[in-house]
Amino acid sequence: MLSFIGLGLYNERSLTIQGREALADADEVFAEFYTSYLAGTTVSELETTHDIDIEVRDRAGVEQHPEPILDAAADGHAAFLTGGDPMISTTHVDLRLRAIDRGIDTRIIHGTTVQTAASSLTGLQNYRFGKATTLPFKRSHGGAGVPESVLDTINANAERGLHTIVYLDIDRENDEYMTGDHAAALLDDAGLDQVAVVIGQAGSDDPTVSGGRLATLRSQSFGDPLHLLVVPGDVHPMEEDALRTLAGIPEDAL
Fold first, then answer.
1. 108: which strand partners?
2. pLDDT by residue for the chain (254 residues), tens digit each?
3. How many CB atoms lie within 10 A of CB 50?
4. What are the b/e assignments for 176-192, b being 16+ CB within 10 Å?
């Protein structure tokens, strides 16, 4: 059995009761933190809180060399931990399909994800979001400024009146996380003259939700990582009220 368990958004307490019960039943526990990361905890705190030992796998250890995970699942019950919800990343879908090809039973124990938190924290209606995109560090894509694909996604959604979630780059090798002000500066410099909302510390007891024009957000600080940026499209009157109340966007900015 291979159980894919979502750890939720922020720390060792974000795990569901069902997820904790599955962990207690597992013979071996694996995890990856390159697609997502729990900023409010550490691996050792996860191990102590849930009384488990975790083998953290890097990208190659999951995508190219998953045999230890699959072998453990074939011989007993293996748990595979990820931040957020397990199947947001295609990496995890691929691992599940490999397990099924070997005749291994699989199950998914969902966790809260920043995709739904973006709607909850901003008050933007979840069914009015379009395609999401990821804003990389310049060194990650080898170019200058913002990739055209990012701008194309935001603009295409805007033309349809839809909101855009912009995931911000995580560079685990250098322990660096793109911040909301950095993202706002990149998009502002790329000529995107829009209102946006930065979300920080989603899943914590005191998340940051702050909105305004990109030219203003680029000079603000949004606290500890992780950060997310949302670019609203056309807004319903209730959404407009929510953005003013929850994100502090000035009335004349909308």
1. 4
2. 999 999 999 999 999 999 999 999 999 999 999 888 899 999 999 999 999 999 999 999 999 999 999 999 999 999 999 999 999 888 899 999 999 999 999 999 999 999 999 999 999 999 999 999 999 998 877 677 899 999 999 999 999 999 999 999 988 778 899 999 999 999 999 999 999 999 999 999 999 999 999 999 999 999 999 999 999 999 999 999 999 999 999 888 87
3. 17
4. ebbbbbbbbbbbbebeb
Say if CB 185 and CB 146 are below 8 A apart.
no
For the chain, the structural domain boundaries read 2-109, 114-253
Q: Which fold has domain 2-109?
A: Cobalt-precorrin-4 Transmethylase; domain 1 (3.40.1010)
- Cβ burial 2-38 (10 Å sphere, 16+ → b, else e): bbbbbbbbbbbebbbeebbebbeebebbbbbbbbbbb
Question: Measured between alpha carbons, how far is 122 from 139 in angstroms, rounded to an integer?
Answer: 30
Residue 178, classed as helix, strand or coil, is coil
- Assigned token pair, 28: 């071996």
Q: Say how far apart CA 112 and CA 2 lie, in whole Å.
A: 20
Please check whether residue 15 is in contact with residue 45, taking contact to mean a CB–CB distance below 8 angstroms. no
Query: What residue type is assigned to position 45 of the chain?
Result: E
Contact 81, 29 (CB under 8 A): yes
CATH level 2 (architecture), domain 114-253: 2-Layer Sandwich (3.30)
**What is the Cα–Cα distance from 242 to 143, expressed in whole angstroms?**
37
